[in-house]
Amino acid sequence: MAHGVTNQPATEIKEPALGHKLALSEPLVLQSGATIESASVAYQTYGTLNTTASNCILVCHALTGDQYVAGMHPTTGKPGWWDGLVGAGKVIDTNRFFVVCANVLGGCMGSTGPKETNPATGQSWGLTFPVITIRDMVQAQVKLIDYLGVDKVFCVVGGSMGAMQVLEWAHRYPHRVFSAVPIAGSYRHSAQNIAFHEVGRQAITADPDWSHGNYLEEKSTPKRGLAVARMAAHITYMSEKALHRKFGRRLQDRVTLTYGFDADFQVESYLRHQGYTFVDRFDANSYLYITRAMDYFDLAQENNGVLAAAFKDSPVRFCLISFSSDWLFPTSESRAIVRALNAVPAKVSFVEVESDKGHDAFLLDESEFHQTLQGFIEGAAAICGLAADRSAVTMSAERTDASGRADTFARPRLRIDLQQAADLVPSGSRVLDVGCGDGTLLAHLKDFKQVDGRGLELSMGKVRAAVSQGLPVIQGNLETDLSDYPVGAFDYVILSQTLQATHSPRKVMDEMLRVGQRAIVSFPNFGHWRVRLAVMYGGRMPTTPMLSDAWFNTPNIHLCTILDFIDLCREMQIRIEHGFALDALGRQRRFAATNTLANAFSEQALFVLTRV
Amino acid sequence: MAHGVTNQPATEIKEPALGHKLALSEPLVLQSGATIESASVAYQTYGTLNTTASNCILVCHALTGDQYVAGMHPTTGKPGWWDGLVGAGKVIDTNRFFVVCANVLGGCMGSTGPKETNPATGQSWGLTFPVITIRDMVQAQVKLIDYLGVDKVFCVVGGSMGAMQVLEWAHRYPHRVFSAVPIAGSYRHSAQNIAFHEVGRQAITADPDWSHGNYLEEKSTPKRGLAVARMAAHITYMSEKALHRKFGRRLQDRVTLTYGFDADFQVESYLRHQGYTFVDRFDANSYLYITRAMDYFDLAQENNGVLAAAFKDSPVRFCLISFSSDWLFPTSESRAIVRALNAVPAKVSFVEVESDKGHDAFLLDESEFHQTLQGFIEGAAAICGLAADRSAVTMSAERTDASGRADTFARPRLRIDLQQAADLVPSGSRVLDVGCGDGTLLAHLKDFKQVDGRGLELSMGKVRAAVSQGLPVIQGNLETDLSDYPVGAFDYVILSQTLQATHSPRKVMDEMLRVGQRAIVSFPNFGHWRVRLAVMYGGRMPTTPMLSDAWFNTPNIHLCTILDFIDLCREMQIRIEHGFALDALGRQRRFAATNTLANAFSEQALFVLTRV
Hints:
2 copies of one chain form a homodimer. The first copy, chain A, is of the alpha/beta class and about 600 residues long.
């Protein structure tokens, strides 16, 4: 398995039944200060490393996962925990990528942990094993990656505790990671999650068979304690809705209540099964150590309470994914990371997948999730030259005239009003496209103006389409989520034909000019003569080519005229740098939007704004 | 404590240290079919029963509560669990009400339960105690109430498991309950809640000191198991936010992590404390039995899956209260009960209290909660003649002319447009006032037209104000919550000056005419000449006396003209029974709203609609 890297301070141990195992020849110095003299890392690989060693995807597993990501698990006989995602032709395509997954340090599937024998004593480590952290786990993975001959990992990906490892990788080894996908994770374990872990630990240590951690030597097993710990944890992996859908109050193999303490309800029977099958495949002390590592994880605290500092100047491309019904690692946790990454600013995409399956969704075949991940990986692969084919976009040459304005006629696909906005943005600017849709404008700005562009979009499908093009787009609501961006993060913030559909146009404009030096805003003009005549003589709410929806279902809930808009800018102390009067197709009129003719004779307007 | 009732089949047992205890002389036949030959009910009372025995408030306690509602608890030395609510001059005022609370059957504070001695064997019941249900608990309370000489309880109130007892009372003894207040409860225990209970039971029964339930005889105590059960449960009583606010990731009596399994974090220390103090005051077997009783509770299943059937023709006045951050008994559970009660239809008020304190909020001094409860109790007391004073409202005589229309000039306080609506409603109608505010119109309709009125209102403060007048008002959003009402539940559904502020006016109208025979809708007319001229010649969005907000912050997001509205009615196959053209003050014009003059010359309009 060595890939031509010399001076490898490690040796491969052959354990065919349990896969690969690497014995590290250098001691592992832990975050706590303790040292493990001779640690081993058990791991699996899938696919083949290419000649430039650029196609490695490192998968990080969760609390009770292991290195058997795909294929058949050697001890349970079931498919690997991400078998739906990882394999030939799958989302993480082993025909193209070299996939690596290691059992975490402290685990119980071959890597050094409390269950393994301490060479110094000849006995199992038990509680003499030092407390480890997420950082320690990642440190061991780095040594594995070194051994495998990979200098830069194309993508580090993982869910739950795996997401913590992904963040640790991006934080501590930013130049060894091209892209990072933390799924259903957090930058720190919450008080509630610590509490749930503590309950699990108390259940284990309350079991007399735990024998103060020495059960392996005492030939006992704290089955009951570990089963209770697993049962409590298992509830947190599912949503209330999923439990209701799956079990409800249905009875187990009976038609009436037994008025006893048997498992009358299916959900009880299911939980007991979850608990008591778990003890066959997991080590109680490993459970203590790994839960502790999660509790200790706090990237903000490590950086003086400022999470953004953990990712300063990060070159890594991030894609955060959360699940709407996950209450163990809720979307708000992922959003906090997105906010910190925006503040750096790093390149970040984010999608909250609609799912009622709770935290467990990251292990299930959720098509929205898989498609989002696939889109991001393909987009990132295209940038790295790892994609099978990269279509027309990269083939079209950039064409700009002397003024820096792109030649509009070469790209007929861009909507005229978007072209208007694009023409106003200087090359190399930092741009936020609010309501960016599938990323058409951003892709255009990237390809033709070398713009450092970001997008915000409400529709999950459109975000996915944009992310698939390698664009950093965040799923979010423009009325609430502009607050995620820091002051002056962008040169231009673009809002096209959407201001009139917001609940708080004033607040949106405020926010745009907080996060951007300039704002480009376009909207339909309610002052156009056609609108006025329709109201005056029609006696009905106007419908025009620009305002075609009926009064009762129009998305335009805060319409204004050009004069109203200019008034509001004045009141808000916003300076109008340019005002373009446009016709219904977005073509520029001969007069400016600030001209007295504009309010009556232009169907729409586009303004470039800045703070006075 | 006997209140002049003869033939009492029960005797009071004197146990001064532990309060009152009633020995039932008749056997208790349980829901399971089992019988307890000689059961006892331990209870406390506060205040004095009045001569008509009409001032009794029965308080039902939760899983780990007991009969010591107020004052000092005899064993813990702490204030009773609702000491903030119950007492002289408090929300449940013991100067005016006779408050009763009984330890539940199966409990461990004196009522018959697994900890007590089985007279037949002379040993503690332990697991030979029969499994009991919420119905059994309530049955025992009924015998207590009989003994106390109370025929009809003024109010049954309780939170969590207490709410289940309240619902059981209202379901099974509707004529012995005037009002019922289920707080933070449900009509059935959810799959997730059964799962959490099962974890607790597994933790207890996994403890070897539990001795198969025989620990009292074996002189052992399953402390560790019960503590783990309590810890797991305790997490569910708090919200993630409350845990974060209270503890966050703060360390306990140390400045750095210890890299060990001590309670490094405050939240761990707190949980351990909660667990290990609980075992001093609670019996492990009681925990098993009471959790089981909750799991078994399902009022819908008992009524062939139709919850509404449990409350058919119920004369009880209900007030449901939930807390926004309660995830153990979330608002959706209370809403399901509200929906069922609406379907009956019963008189129901509902408020979701904004709180970040989770399920525990019902035990805490949440002022919004206390004020809501106080409002409801005062409103109900006024109806029963229990209020200290009932002001002007009841003193004004009803005055209607021959046509059934009320004399508008006698009540100057009602807004003219509300008076317009009130005049259209025949006496004795069933009316839903959508967006009812503080209930002004409903109170008017009730006092002067004997209307059976209900209200729906978004603002918690206004709902509270309405509920305080004894009006059944539900906190909710008119765009989503009209679906809670069944087809044809009302003769009239009134929506005053709000249609234009909804997101889906069409859907709202559809819903109004689904739940009501007729709808009364009023709105400002965008077709008025003043509006038209402002648009035509002003070049700005119109502001008029009727439409006074600026374009960027107007709540009116779907304005229409009278003609637009008439068009929509035609399209929706809605028949206009009456259309009133009104001026800006709501005074009726000489022409109808369907007259050609109306669209240009009336500031607003009011329509009476019905389905074709």
